[in-house]
Structures are given as structure tokens and as C-alpha cells.
């Protein structure tokens, strides 16, 4: 076994539905290899992404050194080229049939050379790595090219770049160009390593159909700190977008004799569904897995549509159904099902066969009794984490039993939880029955992954969808019949146009909606389309043809899973022919990489296949990362080569983003200076006469920890702070009432904290005395269809039903249309949008303690703001300090009288450790 010192690594990951690029480089200091240029150039034309990564290194040492080029690419992408240029000589990778390639390199293997160059590394990624010896002063250029068709997932295409260079790179540049003829409806970026300085290196420009995202950090921007040569770049960079759609037959795009047809009509009503959840509760599920399953199930049950019918089956050695038949998703039934789900305990064996047959019987008996609504869709969702151990255990027999029972009537979706499960078994069973399989990775976000999957299938729009093209114009179309169209997804058909010229390509799309059949018709002018694409200078040649080939190969490979032997052989031959013709590294081909040192010594890059090899190490990340795009930081290949760089996990030194202008501490003493308050720089205070309704002009709400006894205490560690029930502080723009604070004196149920319809803003939360803060806070921006749900453990951001989870203190920089979400290492989460109140949420070091709520830019509140806290921004009427006790005064809000007393509190609006400040306290 040889341990390679990672010298220079550069990774790109392109994930379906995302495009993820990882740039990795190790420090030059380790040996003489220095990267002087590293570029990623990704061109997305009509969802087809073509990415080129180029890395240029030089050996500055006086001895021969080994340079390693390492990158991650999405599982769903195909490598199409790799080359090394050494001393002006190009060493291209050669893509060959797998068997031929293996023969070629078996000699190398027999001499003890390492095996594959590509291996699975993350949830969505695989890693490509090549090492080569470099002579002193010599330069090497590595170039990798790969292509992927981005898939629409919950209403968005995702391009994800992982940026992890491990040395400063003089020329580091990432360019993503997007061209979407349908028009880009939204574009957002997210990154986990962005600091204020780095954010300046990121530019996004966009017009109707095009977008260009560029990230080009200078050497000093890459530096962790001015005196450190380490790079701060280490994390994910994600771009999400969607295109405009109408209630139509979709969009047909044509280039160079090939076309692609995208179909995802807007505005179709959801079909009612009959869904049976089949949940594995065998012993192996015990612990966190079953807990996360319960959590997800409870959430999923809440998300059922009112017209749906459902039932639950739990199984271990035997299967049990919750109700004797399907029941409507009424509020009572859902409530009962949730408490049933909450009580699921894991133990025993795994009898998949009985559970599956029971689920089919449930649907069958409802069907026979005519209890399935006309025009409804019936689906079975199986979740299991292991192989069958009880009852029928032969996978082939189970597959046959299930297929015979379902008999094409229902769709089966299989979720494989973790790596003890035979994914191939589940995948075949799902594909045999018109559904699909997913792996659920064991991690802190497993519950979100389950919910995410459910969201994908939650809203069936059409069934039996068939695409029709005139056969005199079109030949060689990809799959044109699909069982179900779900909201948020997209159907894609590509094809080749016949030679004889025609002006117009027309198509029909037929499908069944709830209660009616529907036919869409769409036409596209061939000449006009050709022109549109040809005018794009950055389009790579024949991209549409490559898109067609890519999709055809993908579909052939998928069909092989459930095809008969003869069919399978035919599909393989056809997929292989296309893979070779278009130079794709697919599961049927390999790329032979020859190095200069020894012409005999070639290595082979092969596409890893989705398990059956029980790649236990693949998910070893076990990190608390919950971003599904995060790949584990370390991976051990099956050949035993430790290939990834040391852990750079704790290397962020982000300058935490802050509220607007840092202001002076608010430690003025109201007793002595009530009429001579210096104007705080961050607040435009205005003089307002007594009992004049004041529109809260620039006030802020600050949640404080209560009563700092000693002024001198510096709170460097929030866990050590004297911790009592904190107050909510509401600074008022009146000269005599600079800030007020609110003490919540009892735990109560969920509270409507702030509600401002004009802002589209709603903040709710639950306050817990024993947690001295909020046990959860939910912030909803209705106009953005965005919701942030924060608990002391984590933050979940949901947009258009797509959820991402983040742990506190992860750095995050999420730039959505109309809102920026940032989080820094101190655990301060900010939601800030133009003309919006900025909401801050602050977590403590100790997750047992509740969250703090902060508000900024509160002059953006409308005059209709309401809620427990919001009401104080709606025309508060302050009385003067009482004559006998100037530390008391009256307050009237919305007809309710309060008595306020002057208190000193700790102010967290600039984040921890907080500053001492005075306020008028009201108890609620
Ligand atoms: C692969 O890239 C090398 C270097 O750019 C180039 O010479 C070669 O023609 C490419 N191969 C294919 C099949 O595109
Ligand atoms: C796409 O939608 C956006 C937002 O709704 C709109 O501004 C834009 O004009 C649309 N573009 C096209 C090409 O229709
Ligand atoms: C927007 O369009 C103009 C011309 O139509 C083009 O020059 C510019 O590069 C486009 N911007 C982007 C980001 O593509
Ligand atoms: C839809 O079309 C099918 C034939 O494709 C037919 O059997 C069915 O009755 C039609 N349904 C409605 C509601 O028209
Ligand atoms: C695949 O290519 C081989 C030769 O390259 C040819 O003989 C064969 O007919 C092709 N098969 C198909 C299905 O196109
Ligand atoms: C803060 O204090 C707690 C309790 O004293 C301690 O466990 C923790 O490690 C401290 N955290 C830091 C960052 O110093
Ligand atoms: C929202 O707040 C910002 C910052 O205080 C301010 O610049 C902006 O004018 C406000 N917008 C509105 C609509 O009040």
C-alpha cells in the first residue's frame, strides 16, 4: 500500500441535480509543487452542463516531485476527456470498452500499481485522481472535462462547486455561464466559506436568458489572515436556478439537427393520491435511524393533501398495518397517524416480502371496493435499511412477487437507508414498478432527506404521459412515455431530426389529469432555434447531439436494470456504441491514462456503480454537515490509498457579517441624561412630543440576557455568562425612550411574535422559561415563499418546498433573490433583504439553551405590524418618567396599558459577547 502525499489536488463535482465543482490543492510547502493557475469553466446550455477544469503546476523544488491532480465530479456526470501536458507533450486519456481497457492496464496492475482512478466519495460525488512525477522547474497542465444534464429537483436546477484549494493560487477563477432560452426565472447562490472579503470576488450578472457567475479571488482574498499563507477557501459553492414556464406543452430547443423537449407545465392541479408508507422497524433501525424516520414521517403526514388517502405499514419479522384500509387524510386521521408514528420502536428481523404484499393488498382491496377516487394516483413508499432476513429472503423471488402483485397498477418508490441495504435490489424493484429508488444517507439530516424525497412525489400532476412527434421529421427519440409527472420535476425527451428540411417541429404531449385527459401541443421553428443557439459563441459544438447521446445512454443503463437478458445485451451494445462515439466514461467504458514515465504504465479511470459493494467507508463522513451537497472530507479508496488531504474542517476564519453600521454601546443612563442623549450614529432619533404616536423609525429589537450584576464582566463565553431568562429589547426612536425591553415571564404555547402583512413577514416562536429563550423560531417571508425554522440544534431553510439544513456556526452565505441569509462562526444567523426588516437569530454554545431573537432595520415595518413583539412598533404611546420615581413610566399600546421600569441589560445586537445597555422593561 502506498500513501500518496496529496500534492496538488483539484476536484470538480457535478451532481445530479447539481453541478458541484471541487477545487483542491495541497500546500506547496509540502513539496515543491506549486499551482499557479486553477480554472473552472462551466457552460450550461439548456440544462446541459459542460465543465472544464484546468490546473497548471510547476515544480519549484530541485528534485523530482510528484504532482497529484484530484477532483470530485458528480456521479451523474460523464467524464469526457482528461489530458496532461508535460514538457509540451500532450498525454490524452483514451476512452475504450471496459474489457479492452482492463487488458491494457492489467500489466500495470500486476506490477503493483494502484487500480482505479475514480471512486465514489460522497453522496453525489465520485473522485478522480492522477499523480505524475514532475522534473525540477517543469510545468504540467492537467485538464479534465465532464458533462451532465442537470435534472430539475423540487423546482430548481442546481450547480454546486466545492472550493477547497489547499494553497494560495495566483490565478484562481471559476466561471459559470448559463444560457436558458426559456428565460431564467430565478438564480440564487449559496456558499459555506464566504467572508465579506471573498464575497467581493463573486460577481453575478444576469439577463433574461443568460447568467454569468464568476468567482475570482485575489491572493489576499484567499488568505486566511494577512500573516497566514493558508487559504480560507474550503467549502461548497452552489448555484440554483429555474426557468420560466407556462401552462403549455413545454419548450422545444433545436441545435444542429438535434432537439430537446422539456416539459413541466405550470398551473396543473395536483391529483389526489393514495399512498401506503411501508416502514422498516427492524432492530438495525434502532437508535437515530428510527428516530429520524419517526420525525420525517410525522412531518410528511402533516404535508399530506386533504384529498389524499393513506395508510401505514410497519414491519420487522412481520408486518402490521395501522388501519384495516386506506383512510382519508383528514385532520383526525393525520393526528392519530402521527401519534402512531411517534410510537414506532425498532426491533426484530426484516420481512420485506410480507410487508410489500400487504401494501399491495391494501390498495387492491380499496380498488375492488371502488374506494380509490377516480383519477387518483396510487403509490407505495418503502423505507428499509437492510436485506430481507425473515419470510421470503431471496431478493429475486421478492422482486417477482412484488411485480406480479402490483401488476403495473401502482408505483413503487424505494428508499434505502444507509449502506447495509442492497441498493441494487431496491432499485430493480422500484424500476420494475414504475417508480425509482433513492439512498438515504445516515447523517444528521436523514430526516430532511426523507421529507425531501416525499416532497418530490407529493404532488402528481399527470399520469400516463406520452410524447408524440411527426415521424417524417423526427427519428431516434429517447424515452417518450412516462408514468407520472410530479410538480417540481421535468420530463425530458431528446431526438434527432431527419435530414429532409422542415420549417417547424411540432409535438403533442398527452396525459391524464384528475378527471380528464389533456393534450398539449407545441411547435418550434427549426430555423429560428438553430439561429438562436448558433449566435452563442460559447456554445460548444454539437452540444444538443451530445445531450441526446448522454440522455440515451442514461436511459439505456437504467432500462438494463429491469430488462430481460437478451434485451439487456442489446441495450448494452447500443449504450456502449454511443459511449465510445461520444467519448463518455460510462459504466461500460474506461479511460486509459498513460503517463510519460513509463509508457507501459497506464492507469484506468472507470465509472463507479452505485454500490452493491457496500461502500461502508463512503459515508464515513459522519460529520454534522447537513448540506446534502457536502461530501465527506476524507475517504479511503478500496485500494487502500489515503488520498484526501488532511482535515481542514476548522479552518474558517470568517469575519462574521454584522448588522449594518456598528453603533456605540448603549450604556447611557436614562436617569441623568434623559434629555441630552447623544444621537447614536446608527439611529436617526427624532424628537417627539409626549403621547404622540411614533412610527418606530429606526428601532431594533434585541434579546438580552438579563441583569448583568457586575459591569466589569466580560462575556467571552456565552455558556459561562450568568444565565437567566433573557428579555426582548425594543429600542424606541423617541428621545426619552431609546430602547424598551420585554421580559417574557412564563412559558406559553407558540406565540405570534411579529406579523407584518405589508412586509410579507411572519415570526412565530415558542418561549421556554427553562431554556431561557426560544425553543424554536419560525420566520416566514411569504412573498419569497421562504421559511426559516430554527431550533437550538439547527436551522432549516425551506424555499419552494426544498429544504436545506444547517448546523449553527457553520459559515453560510446564501444569496437568494430578495434575501441574503448569512451565518457565521459565532452562531449568528441574519436574514436581510432590501426594504425588509433584518431578523437575527443567535444560538448559545449550549444547545439546551433557547435562541435569541434580534431585529434590525425595523423602520421597514409597516404601520400594520402586530404580534407580541410587533405591537410595540405600532404607535406606542409613552408617558413621561414618573415624578416620584424616574425609573418608571407608563406605556400604552393598542389600548393596553403597561408599566415600564428602567433596567440594565446585555445587548447582543452586534453578536456575542454582547454589550451592556439600558432599556425600559415591560413584563408580559
Ligand atoms: C482531449 O483533450 C486533449 C487536450 O485538450 C485534446 O488534444 C484531445 O483531442 C481531446 N480528446 C477528445 C476526444 O476530445
Ligand atoms: C421570466 O420570469 C421573470 C420573473 O417572473 C421575468 O422577469 C422575465 O421577464 C421572464 N423571462 C422570460 C424570457 O419570459
Ligand atoms: C446580457 O445581454 C447582453 C446582450 O444582449 C450581453 O452582451 C451580456 O453579456 C448579457 N449578460 C450576461 C450575463 O450574459
Ligand atoms: C382518457 O383516455 C383514455 C384512453 O386513453 C380513456 O380510456 C379514458 O376514458 C379517458 N378519460 C377521460 C376522463 O376522458
Ligand atoms: C455498434 O458498433 C459496432 C461496430 O463499432 C457495430 O458493428 C454494431 O452494429 C453497432 N451496434 C449498434 C446497435 O449500433
Ligand atoms: C465555554 O464554557 C463552557 C462551560 O464552562 C465550556 O464547556 C466550553 O468549552 C467553553 N467554550 C469556549 C469556546 O471556551
Ligand atoms: C429599510 O431599511 C433600510 C435600512 O434601515 C433603509 O435604508 C430603507 O430605506 C428601508 N426601506 C423602507 C422601505 O423603509
Automatic annotation (TrEMBL):
Q: Give start-end ranges for the coiled-coil region(s).
A: none
Q: Which UniProt keywords apply?
A: Glycoprotein, Protease inhibitor, Secreted, Serine protease inhibitor, Signal
**Residues of the VIT domain:** 19-148
Q: Which residues form the signal peptide?
A: 1-28
Biased composition, class Polar residues, residue ranges: 618-628
Q: Which GO terms describe its biological process?
A: hyaluronan metabolic process
Q: Which Gene3D superfamilies match?
A: von Willebrand factor, type A domain
This protein's major location comes to: secreted
Phosphoprotein found in the keyword field:
no
Q: Name one GO cellular component term.
A: extracellular region
Q: Name one Pfam family in it.
A: VWA
Family indicated by similarity: Belongs to the ITIH family.
- The protein's name is Inter-alpha-trypsin inhibitor heavy chain H4 isoform X3
Q: Which organism is it from?
A: Castor canadensis (American beaver)
Upper classification of the organism: Eukaryota, Metazoa, Chordata, Craniata, Vertebrata
Chain's gene name: Itih4
Amino acid at each position: 500500500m502506498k500513501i500518496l502525499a496529496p500534492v496538488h489536488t483539484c476536484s470538480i463535482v457535478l451532481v445530479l441535480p447539481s453541478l458541484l465543482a471541487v477545487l483542491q490543492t495541497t500546500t506547496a510547502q509540502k513539496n515543491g509543487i506549486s499551482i499557479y493557475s486553477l480554472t473552472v469553466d462551466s457552460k450550461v446550455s439548456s440544462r446541459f452542463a459542460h465543465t472544464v477544469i484546468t490546473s497548471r503546476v510547476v515544480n519549484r523544488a530541485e528534485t523530482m516531485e510528484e504532482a497529484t491532480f484530484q477532483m470530485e465530479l458528480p456521479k451523474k456526470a460523464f467524464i469526457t476527456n482528461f489530458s496532461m501536458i508535460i514538457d509540451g507533450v500532450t498525454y490524452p486519456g483514451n476512452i475504450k470498452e471496459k474489457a479492452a481497457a482492463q487488458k491494457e492496464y492489467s500489466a500495470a496492475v500486476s506490477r503493483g500499481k494502484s487500480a482505479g482512478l475514480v471512486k465514489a466519495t460522497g453522496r453525489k460525488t465520485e473522485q478522480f485522481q492522477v499523480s505524475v512525477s514532475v522534473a525540477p522547474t517543469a510545468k504540467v497542465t492537467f485538464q479534465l472535462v465532464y458533462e451532465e444534464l442537470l435534472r430539475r429537483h423540487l423546482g430548481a436546477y442546481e450547480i454546486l462547486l466545492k472550493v477547497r484549494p489547499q494553497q494560495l493560487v495566483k490565478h484562481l477563477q471559476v466561471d459559470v455561464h448559463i444560457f436558458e432560452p426559456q428565460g431564467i426565472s430565478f438564480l440564487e447562490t449559496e456558499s459555506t466559506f464566504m467572508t465579506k472579503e471573498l464575497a467581493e470576488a463573486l460577481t453575478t450578472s444576469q439577463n433574461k436568458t443568460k447568467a454569468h457567475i464568476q468567482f475570482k479571488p485575489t491572493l489576499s482574498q484567499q488568505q486566511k489572515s494577512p500573516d497566514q499563507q493558508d487559504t480560507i477557501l474550503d467549502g461548497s459553492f452552489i448555484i440554483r436556478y429555474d426557468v420560466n414556464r407556462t401552462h403549455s406543452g413545454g419548450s422545444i430547443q433545436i441545435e444542429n439537427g438535434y432537439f430537446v423537449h422539456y416539459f413541466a407545465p405550470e398551473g396543473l392541479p395536483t391529483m389526489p393520491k393514495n399512498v401506503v408508507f411501508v416502514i422498516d422497524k427492524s432492530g438495525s433501525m434502532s437508535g437515530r435511524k428510527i428516530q429520524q424516520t419517526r420525525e420525517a414521517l410525522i412531518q410528511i403526514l402533516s404535508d399530506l393533501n386533504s384529498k389524499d388517502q393513506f395508510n401505514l405499514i410497519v414491519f420487522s419479522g412481520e408486518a402490521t398495518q395501522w388501519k384495516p384500509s386506506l383512510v382519508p387524510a383528514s385532520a383526525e386521521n393525520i393526528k392519530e397517524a402521527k401519534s402512531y408514528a411517534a410510537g414506532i420502536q425498532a426491533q426484530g428481523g426484516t420481512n420485506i416480502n410480507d410487508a410489500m404484499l400487504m401494501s399491495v393488498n391494501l390498495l387492491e382491496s380499496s380498488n375492488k371496493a371502488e374506494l380509490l377516487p377516480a383519477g387518483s394516483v396510487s403509490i407505495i413508499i418503502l423505507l428499509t435499511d437492510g436485506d430481507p432476513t425473515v419470510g421470503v429472503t431471496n431478493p429475486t423471488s421478492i422482486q417477482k412477487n412484488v411485480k406480479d402483485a402490483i401488476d403495473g397498477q401502482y408505483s413503487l418508490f424505494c428508499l434505502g437507508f444507509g449502506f447495509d441495504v442492497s441498493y441494487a435490489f431496491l432499485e430493480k424493484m422500484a424500476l420494475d414498478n414504475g417508480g425509482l429508488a433513492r439512498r438515504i444517507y445516515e447523517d444528521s439530516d436523514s430526516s430532511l432527506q426523507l421529507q425531501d424525497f416525499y416532497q418530490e412525489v407529493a404532488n402528481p400532476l399527470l399520469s400516463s404521459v406520452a410524447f408524440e412527434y411527426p415521424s417524417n421529421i423526427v427519428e431516434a427519440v429517447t424515452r417518450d412515455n412516462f408514468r407520472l409527472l410530479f410538480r417540481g420535476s421535468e420530463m425530458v425527451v431528446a431526438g434527432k431530426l431527419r435530414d429532409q428540411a422542415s420549417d417547424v417541429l411540432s409535438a403533442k404531449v398527452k396525459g391524464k389529469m384528475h378527471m380528464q385527459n389533456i393534450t398539449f401541443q407545441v411547435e418550434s421553428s427549426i430555423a429560428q432555434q438553430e439561429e438562436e443557439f448558433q449566435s452563442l459563441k460559447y456554445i460548444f459544438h454539437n452540444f444538443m447531439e451530445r445531450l441526446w447521446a448522454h440522455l440515451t445512454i442514461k436511459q439505456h443503463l437504467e432500462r438494463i436494470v429491469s430488462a430481460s437478458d437478451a434485451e439487456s445485451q442489446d441495450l448494452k451494445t447500443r449504450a456502449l456504441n454511443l459511449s465510445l462515439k461520444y467519448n463518455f466514461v460510462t459504466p461500460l467504458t474506461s479511460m486509459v491514462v498513460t503517463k510519460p514515465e513509463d509508457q507501459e504504465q497506464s492507469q484506468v479511470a472507470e465509472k463507479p456503480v452505485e454500490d452493491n459493494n457496500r461502500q461502508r467507508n463512503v459515508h464515513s463522513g459522519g460529520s454534522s454537515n447537513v448540506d446534502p451537497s457536502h461530501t465527506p472530507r476524507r475517504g479511503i479508496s478500496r485500494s487502500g490509498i489515503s488520498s484526501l488531504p488532511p482535515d481542514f474542517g476548522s479552518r474558517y476564519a470568517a469575519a462574521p457579517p454584522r448588522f449594518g453600521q456598528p453603533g456605540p454601546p448603549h450604556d447611557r443612563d436614562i436617569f441623568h441624561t434623559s434629555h441630552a442623549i447623544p444621537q447614536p450614529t446608527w439611529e436617526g432619533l427624532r424628537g417627539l412630543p409626549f403621547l404622540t404616536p411614533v412610527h418606530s423609525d429606526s428601532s431594533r429589537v434585541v434579546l438580552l440576557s438579563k441583569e448583568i450584576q457586575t459591569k466589569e464582566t466580560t462575556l467571552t463565553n456565552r455558556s459561562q455568562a450568568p444565565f437567566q431568562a433573557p428579555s426582548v429589547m425594543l429600542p424606541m426612536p423617541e428621545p426619552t425612550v431609546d430602547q424598551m425591553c420585554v421580559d417574557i415571564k412564563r412559558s406559553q404555547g407558540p406565540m405570534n411574535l411579529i406579523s407584518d402583512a405589508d412586509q410579507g413577514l411572519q415570526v412565530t416562536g415558542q418561549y421556554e422559561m427553562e431554556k431561557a429563550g426560544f425553543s424554536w423560531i419560525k420566520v416566514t417571508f411569504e412573498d419569497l415563499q421562504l421559511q426559516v425554522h430554527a431550533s437550538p440544534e439547527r436551522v432549516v431553510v425551506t424555499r419552494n418546498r426544498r429544504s436545506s439544513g444547517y448546523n449553527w456556526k457553520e459559515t453560510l452565505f446564501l444569496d437568494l433573490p430578495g434575501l441574503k441569509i448569512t451565518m457565521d462562526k459565532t452562531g449568528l444567523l441574519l436574514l436581510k433583504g432590501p426594504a425588509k426588516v433584518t431578523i437575527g437569530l443567535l444560538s448559545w454554545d449550549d444547545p439546551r439553551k433557547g435562541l435569541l431573537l434580534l431585529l434590525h432595520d425595523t423602520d421597514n415595518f409597516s404601520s400594520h405590524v402586530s404580534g407580541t413583539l410587533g405591537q410595540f412598533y405600532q404607535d406606542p404611546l409613552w408617558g413621561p418618567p414618573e415624578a416620584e420615581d424616574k425609573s418608571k413610566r407608563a406605556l400604552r399600546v393598542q389600548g393596553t396599558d403597561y408599566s415600564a421600569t428602567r433596567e440594565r441589560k446585555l445587548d447582543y445586537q452586534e453578536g456575542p459577547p454582547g454589550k451592556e445597555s439600558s432599556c425600559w422593561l415591560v413584563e408580559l
